[in-house]
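Researcher: We're reviewing a set of sequences before deciding which ones to prioritize for further study. For each one, I'd like a predicted 3D structure that I can look through quickly. This is ECF RNA polymerase sigma factor SigM. If possible, include the structure in token form so it fits the rest of the review sheet.
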Amino acid sequence: MREALAPPTAEDPGPPDAVLVRLAARDERAFEVLVRRHAGTVHRLAATMVGPGAADDVVQEVFISVHRGLKDFRGEATFSTWLHRVTLNACYGALRGKGHPTVSMHDAPEPLAPHDPARTGEQAELRDQLAQALQALPREQREAVSLRELAGLDYAEISRITGAELGTVKSRINRGRAALRAWLTRAGIEP
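Model: Here's the predicted structure for ECF RNA polymerase sigma factor SigM, in token form for your review sheet.
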């Protein structure tokens, strides 16, 4: 079984989540593979919902909760669906603890490219404005847009995570995108 838990590579991504979930209840290496596989997605979603400054704490809380809950995970949904729901719950818990939710993407890393101070400033300003626009959305729209655009989930999976009907998910995403476009246009940004 040691081979099955070798670090994933581009050629061999390792065992599927369902196998790792079964093993992770009694094998820390399997849990570590799950964490490495999903930490980036969880962090991106958390950073959008609570801001980059609080995202690390949320990610830690998510994986502590997942580790504790694996023994009770029944597999009625895919692991990634369950993980996204745990992430959203942790985000809402963090937002309740902060009082007033604010999101700032100012601390998000820049893409690797030659340093151009003017462009760096423009990108930071754009991230801040996009964060403000996302924060202005109603919770359900922000959740649906974040799961679609940042986590890359399809409509059906978003429906399973949120418990909303498929048509409702599509409507929330469309309304959220339109509201973001309008907000950014009012801010003088061409979406």
